[in-house]
Amino acid sequence: MRKLLKSVKLVELCLVLALIVAAYSGSVMAQGAGSKKDQKTSAHSHMNMEKDNGKEQPKAYKGVIDLKAVDKNKDGKVYQDQMDWNVLSDKPGTCPLCKMTLEEVSLKQAKDNLKKNGFKVK
Length: 122
Description:
Elements (H helix, E strand, L loop, with lengths): L1 H30 L4 H12 L3 E2 L2 E2 L2 E2 L3 E2 L1 H4 L6 E4 L6 E3 L13 E4 H10 L3 E2 L1
């Protein structure tokens, strides 16, 4: 009788564990949902300079970053995100990745921030 009870409890335990694993797997799969087209479109919009009503938006730069090219008005300052360091603009704005307000910094400070965070600067 005891062996039968142990066997039943073991089966119940296995079923409960299987349900927990299935529920967890389902939630993980749901979080990763989204078509490849949506993901591609989203990434594309984050990595390119966008225009919103004729107003240039900040850009997430890749590769070697040319800060002098970002500083279009040649005032020695740019706007830089303090979380996504490679998001830069010559005008005030918000980061397209994290939505934080860009902070005005000197070209030297922007260069130091980029280098300190693993980006290459021209």
